[in-house]
Amino acid sequence: MSLMENTMESLPNMRLTTQRQIILEELGKVTSHPTANEVYDMVRKRLPRIGLGTVYRNLELLADSGVILKLEVGGTQKRFDATVHPHYHIRCASCGKVDDIDIPVQEDINMAASHASQYEVLGHHIEFSGICYTCSERKPD
User: Fold this and answer.
1) CA atoms within 13 Å, Cβ hemisphere of 31
2) Are residues 127 and 65 in the same domain?
3) How far is C-alpha 56 from the chain's CA centre?
4) Could you tell me which residues come within 8 angstroms of residue 71 by beta carbon, excluding any fewer than 6 positions away?
5) Which residues of 29-67 are buried (b: 16+ CB within 10 A; e: fewer)?
6) How many whole angstroms separate alpha carbon 105 and alpha carbon 103?
7) 61, 122, 123, 130: which has the fewest Cβ within 10 Å?
8) Residues 69, 92: one domain?
9) pLDDT digits (tens, 9 = 90+) for 41-87
10) What CATH number has the domain bearing residue 129?
11) Do both 74 and 95 map to the same domain?
């Protein structure tokens, strides 16, 4: 299912404004998991008068509606992802870059967590950390 098809199904009570549509289109073009500021820079090329606050509000609204993912890890900037199906991420400990990591989602973790707690576990988020290829290839000054 395309991002726009998913959007139309996920937003039955919300208008898909031109601003939201362009934000989604720009986010769907990249796999870099951009910050709100980076999305703002991308969208401004098409909508020069859009405000940073408008981009922030729409990203939050789209994330709350399940149209996009909001990646939040303590102490780092929020990043946004157009891929909403369950998947894992890996973050560079040096530069902060975030990539998808293509390994199967471990559903048995949910059951194990449920058995180890008194919670009905709805899901989990795993983020791996490491050093990206670019940072590992940098030579010290």
Assistant:
1) 6
2) no
3) 13
4) 33, 78, 79, 80, 81, 89, 98, 127
5) eeeebbbbebbbebbbeebeebeeebbeebbeebbeeeb
6) 6
7) 122
8) no
9) 999 999 999 999 999 999 999 999 989 999 987 667 899 999 998 99
10) 3.30.1490.190
11) no
pLDDT digits (tens, 9 = 90+) for 76-128: 789 999 999 899 999 999 988 899 999 999 989 999 999 999 999 998 888 89
Position of tokens 């031109």?
Answer: 18
Q: How far apart are CA 139 and CA 22, in angstroms?
A: 39
| Count of residues in the chain | 141
What is the 3-class SS of the chain, one letter each residue? Answer: CCHHHHHHHHCCCCCCCHHHHHHHHHHHCCCCCCEHHHHHHHHHCCCCCCCHHHHHHHHHHHHHCCCCEEECCCCCCCEEECCCCCCEEEEECCCCCEEEECCCCCCHHHHHHHHHCCCCCCCCCCEEEECCHHHHHCCCC
